[in-house]
């Protein structure tokens, strides 16, 4: 039998050219063994114990179930790897979400890594922007892989790991700092002939997303490396950016959605490699809760019961699809609606009704996270002649505001005093802040809500009675 060179011997097959460490392109004879199908689990962006803001603002929120979701998803990943008897687990960055609040976060990963290693499954991890070397001050001793190698790939330069018993070469590099702006993949080693070459990279992938472009590169550039599969991390939306004739270039997405911006099934990718190093892959959901937004067009609806019925029907479908997972729902009411004024005036009422449906239908499987009323007044709805003076003036002012490009700045200026008095936890990031001034939809909704309240006070019309269920 001709044996493949070991990882240690391969590392010596390097030379320095121009002051840079260069890895020689090595051609190995295929070992005299029959390689059957090999399995590799590709995960990324676990963000273990990621802080979930604003939960404490809701008395009914299942806070502990949501906060522990990332750990339970990681446990599901470990169980899947063992049940499927995979040959390798790769995690393409952002295992952590920054420095740990306490050692329990690190211990949670140590526990799962130990399970995998005990089962004979090697684990390879690269650091991303959230767990870059300079972001982490806490650390715990990690178990070694079955061959004695470290779990984390190094920073500063690309590294190759060779799993000779399964004919797999893994190439990757951890982030040294959070804002990694150079094209790391450009300096990755050449593919090794006779082996299945897998590249690990945490990247924004130019042209694929508006996400921060850390470690920028292109699908064409990755394809030119000649690898058989690219395991990417950083983008939380699952997708393959393969170009014609090239290898899969796959974002597995994150393991567990953390907020309403990360909707739908989340999990990992299971890769199957045949004896000729051709691969196919399938998505496997691992999440323990799912975020979904229910968008209801209130335009054609005449009373509140139609809104409630629409939500109830949507909810029944989602509960079935969630397969026992916790469903975290947000309702967004849209459209030009005759109920516009009444809905804005009775936000707490409509929220309570929808929450009651969630509790009754969900059997503790549903939590209504929020209700967003984004309706507008129908353009053809005429205002009563008795009030055309003040209401016509109000509509003129509103139209001026709606078309004012500095609307967000005006609102921020008006609320600056109140904003400064908010506790720190309510200021937060843009997507979690109590006053997200950069969110144009939020700003527009604020104006429409205030306008609806004024209109409702001036005009007691039939839409208010219909939406509130009041008798005339």
Features of the shown structure:
Mre11_N, six-stranded mixed beta sheet, 16 strands, 3 domains, disordered N terminus, 472 residues, Purple Acid Phosphatase, chain A, domain 2, alpha/beta, single chain, D-tyrosyl-trna(Tyr) Deacylase, Chain: A, five-stranded mixed beta sheet, hydrolase
Q: What would your notes on this structure say?
A:
It holds the Pfam family Metallophos. This protein has 472 residues and is of the alpha/beta class. Helix 4 links the parallel strand 4 (88-92) and strand 5 (123-126). It is built from 13 helices and 16 strands. The strands form 4 sheets. The protein has a 6-stranded mixed beta sheet. The chain has a 5-stranded mixed beta sheet with strand order 5-4-3-12-13.
Radius of gyration: 27 Å
The CATH architecture of the largest domain: 4-Layer Sandwich
| Largest pleated sheet | 6 strands, mixed
CATH superfamily of the largest domain: Metallo-dependent phosphatases
Shape: elongated
CATH topology name of the largest domain, in short, is Purple Acid Phosphatase, chain A, domain 2
Q: Fraction of residues in helices?
A: 25-40%
Give the ordered list of helices and strands. HEEEHHEHEEEEHEEEEEEHEHHEHHHHH
SS field, number of helical segments: 13
Number of domains: 3
Identify the CATH class of the largest domain. Answer: Alpha Beta
InterPro entries: Calcineurin-like_PHP, DNA_Repair-Maintenance_Comp, Metallo-depent_PP-like, Mre11_N
Keywords: Hydrolase
Pfam family, one: Metallophos
GO molecular function, one term: hydrolase activity
